[in-house]
Design a protein that fits this description.
Elements: H1 2-23, E1 32-38, H2 40-43, H3 47-54, H4 58-76, H5 79-85, H6 88-98, H7 104-114, E2 115-123, H8 131-142, E3 150-151, E4 155-161, E5 181-186, E6 192-200, E7 203-213, E8 219-224, H9 229-237, E9 250-255, H10 257-274, E10 304-314, E11 317-326, H11 329-348, H12 355-361, E12 364-368, E13 371-377, H13 381-400
Parallel strand pairs: 3-7
Antiparallel strand pairs: 1-2, 1-9, 2-4, 4-8, 5-6, 6-7, 7-8, 9-10, 10-11, 11-13, 12-13
Helix pairs in contact: 4-13, 5-6, 11-12, 12-13
Length: 401
């Protein structure tokens, strides 16, 4: 069963990579738009997770949620439905796996046991004339208009695990060697690089997958494109990821300057589209000066250089930090004042003794130089009352569905 479970996790991982491929269909060489690191296994020992799983409401919620998932999977992934979407052999094998003693709960527990970390990096070239066409491809995919859609992946998705990726090779029986895939590297009982290039449901899929042995029976499974896969393999061997610290309970998302330049560019495009339209008139106060639609915040994203969101333990207490690097100190102070005002308004909108007010009062907003930060420790008793209440309500809704 364990072997079948690992194979299934590989399949889910491949689908996960394809999803990111769709959202990463913008080309690029060095420009990074988004990066993410999740120390998955270490975070399971974080203060937040310990508090969460210690709640009396947690176990009933988790059981109700996983049982409902099992029923939904069994219904949606019936043999008939699978055969309509997949080749018969794959559909039959997947159905056989689902009919074994596997369950959503066991699957989640296995992932927490064997997945050490997730590293993701999305690259984009904002000078590419085809970027709008690529974004249209993403929109078409999400709306299931997939005709003539080409899916590729430029960036990095890496999964650090304690299972040899070669154990997943049985999945290759569903593909044609040297037609749908080929080995770019295949060291005997060692590292490998696979390139996939195939068509499925009139969509072209092209990406590379590599398995790299690290140390102490640790491995990394890498998804990227054929132009960068070797470089990323070397990065995990001797480069920037070789000494990556995955022992700290931490999740970190970074939105780079290119992300905000992209948003700024497209907001300005929307602004240009609205040029010449009538001014907005406040019907409640017609005497007020009319406001032009294009004056609403279209310059804001151009003032941001980077935003980093970190969830980690500080002095054995989990806290969330959001730090924005602005272009000037004046911009940072303006954002601090805006956030402080919004928090004050939010506190006035709730009752004096409500849990929400205590939670809002615990949020700290600071500005130093060109940086503005928002921090909150996740040990606030009012927060955990709200989480417990939310879990209880969710459990009731799941059971009553």
């Amino acid at each position: 069963m364990t072997k079948r479970l690992f194979i299934s996790v590989w399949v889910l991982t491949a689908l996960f990579a394809v999803f990111f491929a769709a959202t990463a269909a913008v080309a690029g060489d060095n420009a990074v738009i988004i990066s993410y690191q999740d120390n998955f296994k270490a975070f399971a020992d974080s203060d937040f997770v310990k508090r969460l799983t210690a709640l009396p409401e947690w176990e009933p919620f988790f059981d109700a949620f996983t049982e409902t998932c099992d029923k939904a999977i069994d219904k949606e992934l019936s043999r008939e439905n699978l055969r309509r979407k997949l080749p018969n052999q794959i559909a039959d094998d997947l159905r056989l796996f689902l009919e074994s003693d596997i369950s959503t709960k066991k699957g989640i527990e296995t992932i927490f046991q064997h997945l050490e970390a997730v590293i993701f990096k999305l690259q984009a070239d904002f000078d590419d004339d085809d970027i709008d066409e690529n974004l249209q491809d993403i929109t078409d995919l999400l709306q299931r208009r997939t005709k003539d859609l080409e899916i590729d992946f430029e960036g990095l998705l890496a999964l650090m695990i304690d299972v040899n990726p070669r154990s997943f090779f049985s999945f290759l029986k569903y593909f044609r060697e040297k037609t749908d895939y080929q080995f770019l590297r295949n060291e005997p009982n060692g590292d490998f690089i696979l390139k996939f290039d195939f068509e499925f449901h009139n969509q072209d899929f092209e990406f590379c997958c590599a398995g790299i042995k690290l140390n102490n029976e640790r491995y990394v499974l890498i998804f990227s494109d054929d132009d960068q896969i070797v470089r990323y393999c070397d990065a995990f061997k001797t480069g920037r990821y070789a000494n990556l610290n995955t022992t700290e309970p931490k999740k970190e998302l970074v939105l780079e300057e290119t992300c905000f330049l992209f948003l700024d560019r497209h907001l300005k495009k929307i602004k240009r589209d609205f040029d010449g339209m009538p001014d907005i008139v406040n019907l409640a106060n017609p005497q007020q000066k009319p406001v032009k639609l294009d004056s609403y915040g279209t310059e804001f994203f151009g003032k941001i250089k980077k935003v980093k969101v970190t969830l980690h333990d500080v002095n054995n207490v989990t806290q969330i930090e959001i730090t924005a690097a602005m272009r000037t100190g004046e911009d940072a102070n303006a954002v601090r004042d805006l956030l402080t005002g919004l928090l004050a308004f939010a506190q006035l909108s709730v009752t004096e003794n409500s849990p929400e007010r205590g939670l809002l009062q615990a949020i700290q907003v600071n500005a130093t130089g060109t940086n503005v930060s928002v921090t909150e420790k996740l040990d606030n008793p009012e927060l955990w009352k709200l989480i417990a209440k939310g879990l209880q309500q969710a459990t009731e809704k799941i059971k009553n569905r």
